[in-house]
Amino acid sequence: MRSLSLYVKRDSLIHKIDPFTKIIYVFVSVISPFILPTLIFSTSLTLINLLFLLLGRVVKKVLPIISFVFIIILTIFIIQGMFYDANQTELFSLFNLNFYVEGILYAARISVRAINVLLAFSLLILTTPPTEMIESLVRRGMPAKLGYIMHSVLQIIPMMSSNASIIMDAQRARGMETEGSLWVRIKAFIPLIGPLVMSSLVNTHERSIALEVRGFSAATQKTFLHQEKVPGGMKQLRIFFLLFLAAVLAWRLVL
Amino acid sequence: MKKITINNLSYKYSLAENKALNNISLEVEKGDFIGVVGPNKAGKSTLCKSLVGLIPHFYKGEFEGEILIDNLNTLNSSIAELSLKVGLVFQNPFNQISGAKLSVYDELAFGLENNGLGREEMITRIDKYLNLMDLNEVKDNNPFELSGGQMQKLAIASIMALKPDVFVLDEPTSQLDPQGTEEVFKAVSRLREENLTVILVSQKLNKLADYANKILFLNQGEIAAYDNTAAVFSRNDLEQMGMGAPIYTEIARELGLKNEKNQYPIRKSELKEMLVAKYGKNIG
Ligand SMILES: Nc1ncnc2c1ncn2[C@@H]1O[C@H](COP(=O)(O)OP(=O)(O)OP(=O)(O)O)[C@@H](O)[C@H]1O
Ligand SMILES: [Mg+2]
């Protein structure tokens, strides 16, 4: 595995939009249904997210997550359908259990909002290269050290496996069997844990030195190798999203 | 021209009982290639850390004396400022990968971004050092997927890209296999071609004989010898000092072959010349 990332490389309209615009979109899309908690509103936003996922050609990747969440949602429907405080109007009854309109609607409001959050974040994560996303935040004032931590999380898997293979080479050189049946490999893995933990402590110390001698703490304004590719019209789009949020707020205050 | 001046440098790590460096004074000329040798715990790494300002800015301890790089006192400049003048590469290549970049190409940019270089300049430098270190083929690979030798070359290239005038390498091949070692020494010879001032800590005396014009021999935190390479390796008290000599020097010593400067040869070519001169072309 190259890195810890869910990004799916595709050639789509959604992929072309710059990370920051997408971040603003996700923020607006996630927060709006909480400001204006009507079922129609959150359902529309959810459908829009679904449409964007389709445009980004990444819907398939969301399905496993959705199906997992579906179980939780089903539980919400059952519990709220039967026991919601304001339950009055009976809708149907199943094996002598009564389900009520109020509870079902309440469950729908929560669930749709939850799905909306999920879809919006999936849209961002599936269609944006993580490094570009982090960089776009560092460019806008997020501390570089925090950016470094986020970047290094992406590298955890290659880093660990590289380190493990170094230790395994050393163990093989001392005559330990590290290949073969699953059992042999498990036996080989257990003595690996100690050195892996110990070495990562030493590694952290040494790596911090390596970062320092490459100017990590330099007082200079940081620059970026990669240019931010912002297609035309994105400024307007960002403003539109923010105006939309303002309108939602206004509506809520007036209502 | 003096590139580095060290005056009465002493250093004791906090919590340590003895001084790691004890009253070191020496000068390094611009363009010198200094080979640093000495037994374990001699203070070689401590000297390297001092040259790049990690001591006293990163390691707190008892620091005395001063180090001047081009008249710039390391005490008065930050590690980041010094990193543009003095580069450091150390033993473990794995730990010198920043861990924040997903490709070799981007990894090279890490130090340049931190130092606020312009984009054009970054690209020029990255391309140059990718080529110089033969890393072009792997430029899109994840840095952690490289071999040890390649990783170490990447570490060297990343430091070179910062264009320091002084390059400090602390046993850069001690954790590499023979092939990786060979690759890294090839890289080191590029440093010499770039006319940098190089300080190389290594136990590989044959290699030092090829590259270094001077040898600094440290022992228990003190200077045991600091002289031209041939002069140091020709000393008669090497064995008493616990140090060996390059293989060709040892052979010459056995045969009692000294040159007109009354020194033993240190390289293969020199020894061969002297042997031919003495015994003719068709020995054996
Ligand atoms: N971080 C530290 N804290 C305390 N003492 C240290 C530290 N690093 C090194 N020392 C001590 O300082 C002395 C010099 O160590 P140094 O690492 O400079 O030696 P060296 O010549 O590089 O040895 P080696 O050949 O083992 O790399 C040793 O006695 C060592 O134990
Ligand atoms: Mg050392």
TrEMBL record, chain A:
<dbReference type="InterPro" id="IPR051611">
    <property type="entry name" value="ECF_transporter_component"/>
</dbReference>
<feature type="transmembrane region" description="Helical">
    <location>
        <begin position="62"/>
        <end position="84"/>
    </location>
</feature>
<feature type="transmembrane region" description="Helical">
    <location>
        <begin position="23"/>
        <end position="55"/>
    </location>
</feature>
<keyword id="KW-0812">Transmembrane</keyword>
<dbReference type="Pfam" id="PF02361">
    <property type="entry name" value="CbiQ"/>
</dbReference>
<dbReference type="InterPro" id="IPR003339">
    <property type="entry name" value="ABC/ECF_trnsptr_transmembrane"/>
</dbReference>
<keyword id="KW-1003">Cell membrane</keyword>
<feature type="transmembrane region" description="Helical">
    <location>
        <begin position="188"/>
        <end position="204"/>
    </location>
</feature>
<feature type="transmembrane region" description="Helical">
    <location>
        <begin position="146"/>
        <end position="168"/>
    </location>
</feature>
<keyword id="KW-1133">Transmembrane helix</keyword>
<feature type="transmembrane region" description="Helical">
    <location>
        <begin position="104"/>
        <end position="126"/>
    </location>
</feature>
<protein>
    <submittedName>
        <fullName>Energy-coupling factor transport system permease protein</fullName>
    </submittedName>
</protein>
<keyword id="KW-0472">Membrane</keyword>
<dbReference type="GO" id="GO:0005886">
    <property type="term" value="C:plasma membrane"/>
</dbReference>
<feature type="transmembrane region" description="Helical">
    <location>
        <begin position="237"/>
        <end position="254"/>
    </location>
</feature>
TrEMBL record, chain B:
<feature type="domain" description="ABC transporter">
    <location>
        <begin position="4"/>
        <end position="245"/>
    </location>
</feature>
<keyword id="KW-1003">Cell membrane</keyword>
<keyword id="KW-1278">Translocase</keyword>
<keyword id="KW-0813">Transport</keyword>
<dbReference type="GO" id="GO:0042626">
    <property type="term" value="F:ATPase-coupled transmembrane transporter activity"/>
</dbReference>
<dbReference type="InterPro" id="IPR003439">
    <property type="entry name" value="ABC_transporter-like_ATP-bd"/>
</dbReference>
<dbReference type="GO" id="GO:0043190">
    <property type="term" value="C:ATP-binding cassette (ABC) transporter complex"/>
</dbReference>
<protein>
    <submittedName>
        <fullName>Energy-coupling factor transport system ATP-binding protein</fullName>
    </submittedName>
</protein>
<dbReference type="Pfam" id="PF00005">
    <property type="entry name" value="ABC_tran"/>
</dbReference>
<keyword id="KW-0472">Membrane</keyword>
<dbReference type="InterPro" id="IPR050095">
    <property type="entry name" value="ECF_ABC_transporter_ATP-bd"/>
</dbReference>
<dbReference type="InterPro" id="IPR017871">
    <property type="entry name" value="ABC_transporter-like_CS"/>
</dbReference>
<keyword id="KW-0067">ATP-binding</keyword>
<dbReference type="InterPro" id="IPR015856">
    <property type="entry name" value="ABC_transpr_CbiO/EcfA_su"/>
</dbReference>
<dbReference type="InterPro" id="IPR003593">
    <property type="entry name" value="AAA+_ATPase"/>
</dbReference>
<keyword id="KW-0547">Nucleotide-binding</keyword>
<dbReference type="InterPro" id="IPR027417">
    <property type="entry name" value="P-loop_NTPase"/>
</dbReference>
<dbReference type="GO" id="GO:0016887">
    <property type="term" value="F:ATP hydrolysis activity"/>
</dbReference>
<dbReference type="GO" id="GO:0005524">
    <property type="term" value="F:ATP binding"/>
</dbReference>
<comment type="similarity">
    <text>Belongs to the ABC transporter superfamily.</text>
</comment>
